[in-house]
Design brief:
By secondary structure, this protein is mainly alpha-helical. The protein is built from 12 helices and 2 strands. A two-stranded antiparallel ribbon has the order 1-2. The longest helix has 38 residues. It is elongated and about 75 Å long. The protein starts with a helix and ends in a 5-residue tail after the last strand.
């Protein structure tokens, strides 16, 4: 718990560094630009497609009629844009996470190592392509999980639980690999991921819930859907900050845990024998350790 809290406060302080803010600009510009482009090209067509599909389904049409009678016709009119937003947000979250993991996390790890772990040896346990394959593989699993669990989102309590848990699990799997790829060997990485599985998952879940916070932008008013493309871009900025913070938190925690692991594995001077066997079979005394 001490390591968890210490890494949390250090990550919070590092997030305010100008160098970290500068690092976040590239994934922010890419994800924000893609979101605006997608909104410009596909927003109206997506809303029209969803509205047409909802009107063709008898059960959904009956539900929409009931909503229009009880809540007003305006509520019915926002259902199609709201569905498009709900479907788009997971994609935006995943794209933001991948861009931060691939473009920002290596630089964040180098920054943390330069400032706190100068003497920590880099064993290069994983190459960049391995990190990319790892991230894409778990992203596919997370998207599958989101798709399978989508019906549960219609239950009000579960929509606040299921997506953040899936995003948190994905964040843990992606970030914990990336922050250890440069410094830890494969054996060390596997040992740390096994030993610190629950604290790392807790970091992922906390950041997953922080990542769900931008969704509150859509809860302010139904009128906010008019500015959906711009609000998606604003959400991307918030997602980028959240995942930048996650990178820092994972980096501080994982590198400190790696340093502790190596200190425990390193033989102490007292374990070094004072006598060794020479090839001739005779013993020779070693000079005392300084």
């Amino acid at each position: 718990m001490k390591l968890l809290l210490d890494s949390f406060w250090r990550a919070s302080a590092y997030l305010l560094l100008p160098r970290v803010i500068g690092m976040s600009l590239l994934p922010l510009l890419l994800a924000g630009g893609l979101s605006l482009l997608w909104g410009y090209l596909f927003w109206e067509d997506a809303v029209a497609t969803v509205r047409g599909a909802m009107e063709r389904w008898v059960l959904i049409e009956a539900g929409l009629h009931w909503l229009a009678v009880n809540l007003g016709e305006s509520f019915r009119s926002v259902m199609a844009p709201l569905v498009v937003v709900v479907l788009a947000i997971p994609v935006v979250v995943v794209v933001s996470l991948l861009l931060v993991a691939l473009l920002m996390t290596p630089a964040v790890v180098s920054l943390v190592a330069e400032r706190r772990f100068v003497t920590l040896e880099r064993k290069h346990g994983a190459a960049f392509w391995q990190s990319a394959v790892w991230s894409l593989g778990y992203t596919a699993l997370a998207l599958l999980g989101l798709l399978v669990s989508a019906p549960l989102w219609l239950i009000p309590p579960l929509v606040l639980i299921v997506p953040p848990l899936i995003w948190g699990w994905l964040t843990m799997r992606v970030m914990s690999f990336d922050v250890l790829a440069e410094h830890a060997s494969q054996a060390e990485r596997l040992a740390l991921l096994a030993e610190h599985r629950w604290p790392l998952l807790l970091i992922g879940v906390v950041t997953g819930y922080l990542g769900a916070a931008p969704g509150l932008l859509w809860a302010v008013s139904a009128a906010s859907l008019i500015f959906a493309p711009l609000l998606i871009a604003l959400s991307v900025w918030l997602y980028t900050l959240v995942f930048a913070f996650a990178s820092l938190w994972f980096a501080h925690y994982a590198l400190a845990a790696l340093q502790q692991l190596r200190m425990l594995d390193a033989p102490s001077r007292s374990d070094t024998p004072d006598v060794i066997d020479l090839p001739s079979g005779q013993a020779a005394s070693l000079p005392p350790s300084p």
